[in-house]
Amino acid sequence: MDFGFSPRASELQDRMRSFMEQHVFPAEAVYDRQLAEADDPHALPPVMTELKEKARAEGLWNLFMAHGDWGAGLTNLEYAPLMELAGRSIIGPEVFNCSAPDTGNMELLALYGTPAQQERWLRPLLEAEIRSCFAMTEPEVASSDARNIRTRMTRDGDSYVVNGRKWYTSGILDPDCKLIILMGKTDPDAPTYRQQSMLLIPRDTPGVTVLRDLPMFGYTDRCGHGEVLFEDVRVPVENILGGEGDGFAIAQGRLGPGRMHYAMRAVGFAERALQLMCERATERVAFGGPLADRGVVREWIARSRIEIEQLRLLVLKSAWLMDTVGNAAARMEVAAIKVAALEVAHKVVDRAVQAHGAAGVSDDTVLARLFSITRALKIADGPDEVHLRTVARQELARYKKTDPKAERQTAAPKTERQTFDTKAGAA
Fold first, then answer.
1. Cα angle, residue 231 at apex, residues 225 and 236 outer, rounded to 5°
2. What is the SS3 assignment for 211?
3. Which of 57, 187, 303, 338 is surrounded by the fewest CB atoms within 10 Å?
4. Cis peptide before 290 (omega within 30 of 0)
5. Is 359 exposed, middle or buried (0-12, 13-18, 19+ CB in 10 A)?
6. 46/29 Cα distance (integer angstroms)
7. Nearest residue to 170 via CA among 129, 219, 122
8. Which region, left, alpha or beta, applies to residue 246 given φ > 0 means left and ψ of -120 to 50 means alpha?
């Protein structure tokens, strides 16, 4: 495996690191203050507009997009360290137009959208002229199993009529949100994985009602997490994404890169927490000396560094596999990093909170917010248990006999994951 970065990727890392230090970190307090003072808690703070303009001017824009001529054309391996750097700040990804749910939605439009759909929605999203949201999760069913989705999209002449209820529809309360990508059922009688479809719904379509803004461990997100009611929402047939019955397959295509992006940002969360923990340990005095002299605190720091390095290597391996053998072949690794990333990040943040004492649970540092984010993301985008199920199924499949009459194998089975070369990525 070759994790070496191209000259272009290394140069982008240097530029982004400098941009974060010079512009993003100093703007965090300004962002929070402007948000607190605004009449609308979901309005974009002016400082974010300024940061976006600077990032675009410096060419640090749409770095996530690898499809066609729409974005920077970076590989997953090249993009991974950039999103780690951006992820060290809660506001970082948005500065570079690389924040969820827009990144996943833009990838869907680039991969499956018609030219008309791309012109209407993708171009404005890439220019940050509008925002979008993704409506999949439902309050009445376990939406981690997409087969449970109840929202109906019924064909009526040249339109689909949508009825259902979604929640934690992230981004829908942003005043700039103009597009909802909704997943529902077009044919409940079709084969299991051909029942679902995705539909592009303009935010201002009659019948779309935001019932409430849902908090996340008590925090209100600027973009909002809405509970949304769809009542007889009528949308033209040409707003279908891909084709009727393609929803499940499209969702899988969206979630693969999305999980990679979550893992990349989680490494950044963990690095930020470790930095704050080390600074606190060297500055804070207790029982006659700095916290850094206490064995338990040193163990927290050492274990955090080890775990972050392990996680980073797993993320880079997954990114490399996605680039060399494709998303499907890297399915187990992609599932694994979603679990490992948030597990490590949450653990490191928890240690940093403990090192800060009362300050760690206050809003005086970013740690309390990181604590809530890392915990919530163990549920969002597929709970850990779903990804563990994927890993276990693939691992166990290697031990199943293809010939029921064959004698029991006594040696460990050979797998495609034992050795890798740098070209094919397989044994």
1. 100
2. strand
3. 57
4. no
5. middle
6. 13
7. 219
8. alpha
Q: How close are the terminal C-alpha atoms of the chain, in Å?
A: 11
Smallest CA-to-CA distance from 267 within 209, 329, 326, 337 is with 337
Dihedral sign from CA coordinates of 329, 335, 341, 344: negative
Tell me the pLDDT tens digit for each residue of 1-18: 887 888 999 999 999 999
Of 37, 35, 43, 95, nearest in space to 64 by CA:
95
Pairing mode of beta strands 152-156, 159-170? antiparallel
Greatest extent of the chain over all pairs of C-alpha atoms, in Å: 78
How far, in Å, CA of 406 to CA of 400, rounded? Answer: 11
Which residues are 173's β-sheet partners? none
Alpha carbons 394 and 409: distance in angstroms, whole number = 18
d(CA 109, CA 312): 29
Q: Name residues whose C-beta falls within 8 Å of residue 264's C-beta, 6 or more positions apart in sequence.
A: 79, 80, 81, 83, 84, 87, 315
Q: What is the mean pLDDT of the chain?
A: 91
Cα–Cα distance for residue pair 395/193, rounded to 1 Å? 23
The predicted-structure confidence for 258-275, as pLDDT tens digits, reads as follows: 778 889 999 999 999 999
Least confident range from 106-115, 253-262, 406-415: namely: 406-415
